Structure formats: structure tokens, C-alpha cells
């Protein structure tokens, strides 16, 4: 496939998402802008614009586009907001969020060093100014001031660790899959002065958080 064919497939994917999901046009525009095929391994590239997860090596997967759309929408961020991602994977989701918040505003941490390295390099090559570190989401970016929002692309079993929630300013949001594989829920937390407000957004399937 050439670039024009990929772009056509991407448009078709976004049209399908628009019919099926109740998400903002801004979110859909971000999905339409990011070349997902560049983030998936060569042998899966012909399926890059099918709405399904794909393997990216190291036993990890890139989420299905509808899941990226739903999570990005729930994050409810705008240009200039600073966002913390736990689980860079191949970098696709970070690129989608970067389309909305703009250069220099996405900070992402990835547990597998090889994935962190390749995502950092690919994002740079595609022109996304995203800060990628290898490490554990619980302790990453200790010197950054509070973020406007955070999301996890891996599922902590016992709820979002306090160390991550504590990195988000009052009024900010945390979107995450939580629970054991087989019974995970997608949740959105809103950080309040004296705790968090928790919304449930249905059953999901993500890799476990290390
Ligand atoms: N957003 C990614 C999907 C990544 S899959 C994309 O668009 O490709 C989830 C990722 O979370 C995996 O790469 C996994 O290695 C990473 N992960 C698991 N536990 C982690 C932890 N404690 N800290 C940081 N990353 C973690």
C-alpha cells in the first residue's frame, strides 16, 4: 500500500468510529492524523486500519483504534494540557494525544526499555515531540510538576496506584483499565481536594501492569 491508500483506509476507519462511538470530532481528527501503519510491525501493516489490537513484540499489543478513541475522549484534554502516559508501547496512543495537546506536552513511560527506545525514535522521526522514558509508571518523571491528566495503557490489578493519582492536579483526570485479566473495567477518576470521583466505563482487556 502507498501513502494515499493508507490515508484512504484511515479515513474509512474514522468514518466507522464516528458512526459507532459517541466521541468528539477533535478525537476523531487526531486519529485521522496519526499514521497507525508506521507504528505496527511490517507483517501486520496491511491490518493497520482494521479496528483491532495488533502485536508489537515483547508480548505487548497496540490497542484497537476504538479503545484509543474512547480513552482519549474520556481524558478530556485540550491544547496546552500536560499529560502523563503509563505504557508507551509503540507510541501510537501518545501520538494521538499529542495531536490534541501539542508539542512537548506528553510525558510517557514504558517498562520495556527496547520498546521505549524504538517508540522514542519513531515518534521523533514522525515529528512528535513526546518525552519517552524507560521505567515504572509509579516512579517516572519525579521532577515534573503536577499533570493535567494521566492515563494507563496497562492494567493495575488493585486500582490505579496512589503514586500515579498523586501526580495529577486537583480537577484533573486519570483514565485506566483496572483489575485482573478477564474482569477489567475502564475507569475515569477525577481528582478532588479530598479524594477521587470514580466513573465506570465498561469492560475492557489490557495487558497487566508490571
Ligand atoms: N499505548 C500503547 C499500548 C501499549 S501496551 C500503544 O499505543 O502502543 C501497554 C504497555 O504498558 C506495554 O508496552 C507494557 O510494557 C507497559 N507497561 C506495563 N507495566 C508498566 C509499568 N509498570 N510502567 C510502565 N509501563 C508499563
Descriptive report:
The chain has 210 residues and is an alpha/beta fold. The chain has one domain (52-204): 3-Layer(aba) Sandwich (Rossmann fold). It contains six helices and nine strands, in the order H-H-E-E-H-E-H-E-H-E-E-H-E-E-E. The protein has helices at residues 3-20, 25-33, 65-75, 92-101, 113-125, 162-165, and strands at 54-57, 60-62, 83-86, 106-110, 130-134, 147-152, 168-178, 184-192, 195-204. It has a seven-stranded mixed beta sheet, covered by helices on one side. A two-stranded antiparallel sheet has the order 1-2. Helix 1 runs antiparallel to helix 2 (25-33) and helix 2 packs across helix 4 (92-101). The longest helix is centred in the N-terminal third of the chain and has 18 residues, at 3-20. It starts with a helix and ends in a 6-residue tail after the last strand. The model has no long low-confidence stretch (mean pLDDT 97). Bound molecules: S-adenosyl-L-homocysteine. One of its GO terms (molecular function) is protein-L-isoaspartate (D-aspartate) O-methyltransferase activity. Catalyzes the methyl esterification of L-isoaspartyl residues in peptides and proteins that result from spontaneous decomposition of normal L-aspartyl and L-asparaginyl residues. It plays a role in the repair and/or degradation of damaged proteins. Keywords: Cytoplasm, Methyltransferase, S-adenosyl-L-methionine, Transferase.
Question: Features of this protein?
Answer:
6 helices, binds S-adenosyl-L-homocysteine, Rossmann fold, 7-stranded mixed sheet, two-stranded antiparallel ribbon, 210 residues, alpha/beta
